[in-house]
Design goal:
The protein is built from 4 helices and 34 strands. It is mainly beta. Strands 3, 5, 10, 11, 12, 14, 16 and 19 form an 8-stranded antiparallel sheet that branches. Strands 9-8-7-6-13-4-18-17 form an 8-stranded antiparallel sheet, with no helix packed on it. A hairpin with a 2-residue loop joins strand 8 and strand 9.
Length: 425
């Protein structure tokens, strides 16, 4: 599979960190009675004909059988992700009364952050489990599952509130396709906007004040247009448990980001998480000797570097997944306006938020400053116009204006527009 990988400007450690963000908040489940009750995503209405993928990050506490996700159309059609008392992942499907089940041999550890995904291919009744992007080894045998309430989905329990989960959950996405192993592996650290193709429900859990007092912050927002907002059931909403907490997930890409390469003093860096890298010459597809790190500085690392517009790509490998980037030009003149990717050089976070946004730029030269900022509503009306005194970290306050806004950032090398969402978090 050939996909364009995200590259970022690697001018300094500060610039690199400007591209990497926490996913925001997560939700802590106390294992007593906490769960989230959600409308049933439409993909579960006909499991016999609909493909799907469910993925999420979690930090479980192992020790009792518990449900991570449960989606039930009726007693003969439902899907479940569970953990048993020793930490194996269980994926159970009942499709038109027929049972399909998987149990991983791989064991999850208590208090360890892990990405878990399940996929279902309806045509061949093909069920699979992936742990940290790698397909699990399966135990032999089959198991059964009890049923719960019809027409809904639950996070952290069955739909009737039983068999509750203990631990933290974040970044839960439901897709209407079977995600490939390579997609799961390379995209698990991507942040989603809610408009991605085939994304039918998405909870980013970026709500509330982490470990603070959150009375009334009792809805889990669906970031897609489906509007499947969940209701928090029995959460204390105060303190370090049974509440919104700071996420441990490291988000360093935006989903589907295919930005062009940026050329800086220290070269290029691939932000795809892989086991190995090999930079190659695009002219003949041969490897650059010794260029096997995620970072690559052609000027100092390529003995054949000419400084006259050399083109490079990177091959990223993770187990059986191989991803080859597009080819990008590197010249000896340093940062070039033509190669400057404003979209990935400027980030706005958190998004959504309560209206308090931070704009961070990795444009390290005064020659590429943010000169002005314009904020418009969905009707195009100008809400605010700002001339920033500081170009690299700018604070924006829209806390009294719930809704969707477009922030246009005008720089000396062009303009870029970011969509932001202000919610009552």
């Amino acid at each position: 599979m050939k996909r364009s990988l995200l590259f970022i400007l690697f001018i300094s450690v500060i610039a690199l960190n400007g591209q990497s963000q926490s996913s925001g908040n997560a939700l802590s489940f106390d294992g007593t009675d906490d769960y989230v009750s959600c409308p049933l995503p439409a993909v579960f209405n006909a499991i016999g004909t609909n493909d799907f993928t469910v993925e999420l990050w979690m930090t479980p506490t192992i020790g009792a059988f518990q449900r991570v996700m449960f989606a039930q159309f009726d007693a003969n059609n439902f899907a479940s992700i569970s953990l048993n008392s020793t930490g194996e992942v269980l994926f159970y499907i009942r499709q038109n009364g027929n049972n399909f089940s998987l149990q991983s041999q791989d064991v999850l550890n208590s208090l360890e952050l892990v990405h878990v995904a399940i996929t279902w291919g309806a045509v061949n009744s093909d069920a699979r489990i992936y742990i940290n992007g790698i397909e699990a080894n399966y135990a032999s045998g089959v198991f059964d599952s009890s049923i719960a309430a019809d027409g809904s989905m639950a996070i952290g329990a069955k739909t009737d509130g039983t068999q509750v989960f203990t631990g933290d959950i974040d970044e839960l996405a439901v897709w209407s396709i079977v995600k490939s192993p390579c997609e799961l592996n390379f995209e698990m650290n991507d942040k989603k906007e809610g408009t991605e193709p085939n994304l039918v429900t998405y909870y980013n859990f970026d709500q509330g004040t982490p470990a603070g007092s959150n009375p009334g912050v009792d809805e889990l927002h669906d970031g897609t247009s489906a509007g499947n907002d969940g209701s928090l059931m029995n959460f204390a909403l105060a303190g370090n448990a049974s509440n919104w907490i700071t996420s441990s997930v490291n988000i360093y890409r935006w989903w589907g980001d295919q930005s062009t390469v940026l050329v800086g003093q220290l070269g290029l860096v691939a932000t795809v998480n892989a086991n190995s890298y090999q930079w190659i010459y695009c002219s003949d597809q041969t490897p650059v000797v010794g260029a096997t790190n995620a970072t690559f500085d052609p000027v100092t690392e390529d003995p054949n570097y000419s400084g006259e517009g050399d083109f490079y790509a990177v091959i990223s490998t993770s187990d059986n997944c191989v991803d080859t980037s597009a080819c990008y030009n590197v010249n000896g003149s340093g940062l070039s306006i033509k190669e400057l990717d404003l979209e990935s050089s400027i980030v706005v976070y958190p998004n959504p938020s309560n209206g308090q946004f931070t704009i961070e730029s990795s444009l390290e030269s005064d020659n590429y400053r943010i000169e002005s900022i314009e904020i418009r509503n969905v009707s195009g009306q100008l809400i605010k116009s700002i001339i920033p005194s500081e170009s690299y970290s700018i604070q924006i306050d829209l806390s009294e204006n719930v809704g969707v806004y477009f922030i246009t950032l005008n720089t000396t090398s062009g303009s870029t527009t970011k969509k932001v969402i202000v919610q009552n978090l």
